[in-house]
Every structure is written in structure tokens, then in C-alpha cells.
Records
---
Amino acid sequence: MITTPLHPCSKLQGFQADTLTSCRVSEDMAAKKAVLFNFWGVVVPSRPGGVFHKLEEQHGLPRGFLSQVASQTKGALMQAEKGKMTLNQMVPAFKAECAKEAKARGVTLPSDWCVNCLLEEDRKAMRDVQEIVLKTSASLRCKGVLTAVLANHWLDDSASADDLAQLLCLLGHNFNLVLLSCHSGHRVPELGMFNSALDQLGISSKQALWLDVEKEGVKAAERAGMKSILVENLEAALQKLSDFTGVQTAGAESPPVICHPDQVSHGYITVRPGVRTHYVEMGSGPPVLLCHGFPESWYSWRYQIPALAAAGFRVLALDMKGYGQSTAPPDIEEYSQEQLCKDLITFMDKMFIPQVTLVGHDWGGALVWTMARYFPEKVRAVASLNTPLFPADPSAPASEKLKALPIFDYQIYFQKPGAAEAELEKDLERSFKIFFSSSSEAASRPALKTSGVCARGGLFVGLPEQITRSSMLTEADLRYYVSQFKESGFRGPLNWYRNNQANWKWMCSQPTGKVCDRNLTGNGENCRPRSRFFLTLINRLTG
């Protein structure tokens, strides 16, 4: 089932495939560089002073009242931000300081005022991370520039620390270093805070650039030996950042964050004796299982995995049976849709996943449709890329339909074991250069014709021996795909095609559940609804 390949860069947050070729560490950089961002005012648009002012207006407090209390050198907030006390210790102390300041000013604190109001507003402000800053960090890191976030914040030992944990997880995934003042013992813009960050990054101050909205912070960074940018307009500041690093970031389409094979969690489940499934896992939340197509790997989802995890899902990307580090049994019947579904259900059961959202591409798309139709109790939602739903037609055998459609002649060629394997395995690098091609490059690359394959004597017959690599793949991507097929080859992947007749017979004999979108079928009664939010997200990830 050769379809348009799952675009590895996709349109996640507006990113384009052309930027993939630049997503490599520059070899000609004279020295390491680092960009340090102040969390307050840059990574998030809010400043602590703005949070204080908002609360003062809401509760009728004198302007500057909270800022005055918070800025006391030996006050509770300053001490908490330096790690001298925890949040639970800070709250009563800060409350007492507010009462003392109110008494000194002859002000009566309103009845609806409490320190928890400040904390809630603070948490709300911290969640508003600016997407363009994350994009900028991704661009910089792809070019070998280190990135860091420095934040004045306390040690949160409250029952509401989940928000901070999620924020730190997001930042930790997008920056080389996230340094909180409570762990440093120093606050921004103190020299000790800068030195701590530089030491952990392993660079000197002359190699670093600091971005801040506060003039005090800019001057302090310059005194520390760093270059600095006063962020009055974020877009203009990012252009100056580009001038310093040599990396185009402002206004550029940045590559999305990917999960590298050596930087992601790998797992293995023995489905039954002699059959093992390899998977990659990231994130927490409702489970989403990604099923790739032909001829691919879990690695085809490398751009989608981090994005889905960041969106609040537990993502599991499989090496499908016959691929990569999963078992590749030689028997054709091992790859029937019936057996593949049984294996997938066993995988879910052993992972204690009662129900899952399934997302598939190409043959993976066919499998997720099969799961949704024949095992609907296991499927919460389903989405397929490039592979529409083809219900089995009892009046027309699958083999006859293939013969009637010339574009599927390659599948007839794939039926006989041996010939296709030999052709595709002859030069793995060339094979993947042919298979992975962007539609935008159609005019400059030889077309892979799926009709007339049997008459030609092979899928690649007529194509030049030397094929240029598509912009969809970096050299590292190409090497990884080649490495995954060197050991087990194409026998297993091709066996997926060799069950068409068996699949048709089985599907025609089974009762099926409805698969529909509640929003497209009225009230959706008796249907398996797909999640509108999830499909919207998937569309963003894949264009």
C-alpha cells in the first residue's frame, strides 16, 4: 500500500519540510554559543509587577502595595525565591508582611484578599508560554546553540504543584537548561544566578546572550560579561538574536522538536512466544497508539510524538510486526488483519490499556480501521492518514478489485515472495530515497509509477541508479531507516500485502461496528465517535 508518505516535518505549528535540511548541528561554528531567556516577560509575556498590579486593581489595594511588600530584601517572597523557605512557609509569612504594610499605610485589607489569590494569578501567568520562543529555541538547538530559561520562583510544596511540574516538563523538553532561583540560591539578575547557569551550560560569559524585558537585568548581564538584548518588541529582539547566533529565527519557519532514538524511552512486549513488539513511549494522559505504514518505522512519528505528548497524551509509537526491532516472522499468515488485531489487543492487555485512541498511516491506517470496525470496544477514537475506510464487499473479492485498478499493479507484483524482497533489499539507501519523496519535489525527481510494475519486471525498473535524497529526510534519518531494514529486510513488511484474500474472507464473515464522526452524522447514536479535538490536532501535525 504505497501512499503519500507521512510528512516527517508536517505542518506542526506552521513548520515546513524545507527546514529539515537545516536541522543539523553546524560544523563550522567557531565556538559554542548560548542564549539565556528570562522566564518573566520573555518566555511568558507577564512580569511579576504586572501580576501584582492586576491584583491591586481587582481588590482595591493601593497601587504598588504588593510590589513594595514583595521587594523587601529579607521579605518572605525574596527568601522563598532564593530557596530559604518553601511555598507553604512563605504563605503565612507573606500574609503577615501584607498586614504589617497595610497597618503602616493605614490601609484596610479587603475581605476578599488572600495570598492564594496571588498564587493563582501567578500560576495562570506562568502557563502562558509564548510559542514563538519555543520555536526559536528549537531552531537554535538544531544549529548547536545552547538555550536556557532562568526564572525567579519558589520551591512549590503545595497541593497545586502539578501546574509547575507540567510547565517544567514543557520547558525541559524545549531548552537545554531550566534554572529556578530557589535551586540556585540566587535571583535574576544577581551575578550568582548567571554564573550558575553558565557553569551548568559549560560556557563562558562571552559566549552567552541574555534576553530580558527589564533594564536592570540587561545591565546586570553586561556587567557579568554577557551580551544582552532589551526586549521591548519580541519580534525585533529575535532578529537581534539571529545576528548574534548566525541562526535565522525571527520570521522563519522553525523545525519542530523531534524525539531522537537515543533520547526516548523504548519498550518491548512479548505478545506470545517468539513474537515481540517494540515501541517508543512518551507523555502521560489518555493513551494514543501510533501505527506506521510501509516501508517505515516508529521513527516516522518522530515529529508527532513530542507534540502529542505535550498536548497531554500518553503516546506509544510501535514498530509494526515485521519492522525494526519488532519480531519479523516469515510466515505470511502472521500478517493477516485478524492476527495483527489479535496481537495489538494482546499488546494493549499486557500494557493494561483497556481502550485507546488509534492513529494509523498507510497500512497502519488500514489496521486501525479494522480495529475500530471489528473490535470497537477497544477503540476510543480512530484517525487514519492517507488510508480511507474500505469496507469489505462480499460481492467482490479483494484480488479482483486489485486487478481492476492499474495503480495497484505493484501489489500484484508484491504477491510472490522473493522477487520484490530482492529488488527492495538490493540497495537499501536507494530504496528509501525513492520511497520518501515530497510532492513539492515532483518536478525535480523521477516519479515512482505503481502501474505496469509486473510488465516492467519490478517497481524500480526504469528509475536512475543515482537518486538524490529528498528534503523530507536528513542524512541521519536516512541512515536510521537503512539500519532498521538491514537486519530483518522486507519479507515481513511485504507479507502485509500477501493477505488480501484472507483478509477479505475474514472481514466478510465478521459482524462490524459503525465508525463515524458524531459531528458528521447527526446525534451519532450507535456510532463510534471520533474526537473532534484529536482529529484537529492530528491535522495540524500532518498537514
Note: Confidence is low (pLDDT under 50) at residues 7-30, 518-533.
---
Amino acid sequence: MHLKASHVRLLLPTELQNGQRRETEMDEEQSHLAQLSLSLPQLPDTRIYVRLSTLARAVLVSLTTASPNEADVAAKVMGSFVYALPNRLDAREPLSTVLFPHEPTLDLTTRLARLIARRAQLPTYVTNSMSFAEAGLGDAVEEEMSVFRSVAEAVLERLRQPRQ
């Protein structure tokens, strides 16, 4: 079943009232969705897809890759899921916790979640199922830093833009 954005309501829990949980509808102005596609010079056939959901009090970033060679691959692993939030005691060191670990993607996911939480000053959820093994990139540090830099710049630039 396909739902249009106008048919979907986001509900957020609010404080307890008379011992019962009360839900309030989130205003459309409070949420924003952006989908980005990035290419990297060292991987011309592989695309990085970024889904950025900005809510009133949180940021959700989902990352994945796709390439023409992946048609042969049966299913992609879920990847890592990390939550980070700004640290009130030390603004330079955001707090983070791993919600779902997948070792090959864990380090990049954690670093990205912490960076976005620190720069945006919002709690941040990052899911990452990016894989560059099919593209022959492997686990080289330089390539991973290039991917991290490209994704971080694109996401932070989009967060700085005024919502439309």
C-alpha cells in the first residue's frame, strides 16, 4: 500500500496527563524530508543514497549504496543503527549509543551520528547499510574518510538550508 505524504500524520508522545499518555499531532512545518544522491570520483558507478528526515526535536539519516553490479546480490544487510545526542556538559563530545551493530559499518555510522548531533545540536539517529565491497573499494581508510566527508558535508549543508 502506497501512502501520500498528505495522508500520513506523525504523532509524538507528550507529558502524562491524569496518568494517561496524550499524543499530539506534529505540525507539517516541524518535519522535513530530503532525499539526496551522491557520487564519488573513485566510484563512478556506485551511488550513495541519503534520506534525511528533520523533525522538530531530532534528525534521522538513512544511508545506503546502489550500483549496477548489485543486481546479482540477493539481499543487503541492515547495517548499523546509532543514536547520538548533544552533551550538555561538554559540547565537543556528543553522547552516543549503538542501537543495532554491524561491525563493517559501525565506526562510520557512530562518527557521523556524533558529528551531526554536535553540529545540529539535536538528537540524531543514523542508519547505515552502505557497502563498497562490490565496487572494489574495500576498507581503505582514505576511501572511508572520503565517503564520510562527502556524506557529512551534504547532510550538514542540507540542515543549514531554510525549510521550504
Note: The chain has two helices and eight strands.
